[in-house]
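hey so u asked for the seq, here:
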Amino acid sequence: MEKSCKDYAPHPHLLETLFAFKKKVSAIFRDVLGIYEIHHISITQVTSQKKFISLSSTPALEFNLFNSALWRYDRSYDPQWFTLNRHDYWSNLYEPARYDELYYLKQIKHDYASGISLATRLNEQTLIYSLASQKSCPNTLDAFINLHEDFYKIGHYCFNLLEPLFHQCEIWKEK
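ran it, C-alpha cells below
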C-alpha cells in the first residue's frame, strides 16, 4: 500500500489541529456519541493537495497513528480504497504486515471492540469517517455494516458543522 499513498501525507499542522479545536469538536461529536453504540468518531478530509486533516472525538488515536508511520498501513488512507467511496470494518483495512500494531493502536489501546471506516464525497470534499464502539455484541457489529447509510448521515451532519474548522486548517498552509 505504501506505494499507492506515497503522494499523500498528513497536513503539516495535523497533529496540532487534533487538539487545537478540542472544545468545539467535542461539543459537536457529543451530539452523536452513544447513537448506535458509537464511542468514537473522527472525520478526515483529504485536501486537493493530497493532505490529510483530521478532527476526532479521540484525538490521541489519530495523533499516535499519524505521528508514526502506521497510517501508511491502514487502507482507510489509501487512495485506492477511499476514492471508491466504500465502507469496511477497520480490521479488514489493516495491512497484514502491520495488523497487530494497528489493532493495538486503534482498538485495544482505546478499548474499541470494532470500528468502521466510510469514505465519501460531500460538498466537493473527499472525506473519511471513522467510527468505533466499545461494544462487541452481535447487534452492534451488525449495525456497523447494515446501517452504514445512517453512519454516512451522522458523518455528513458532523462535517457540515465542522467544515469551518477544516477550512481554517486549510488556510494555515498558506501562513
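The two ends are 32 Å apart (CA to CA). The mean pLDDT is 90.
lmk if thats what u needed
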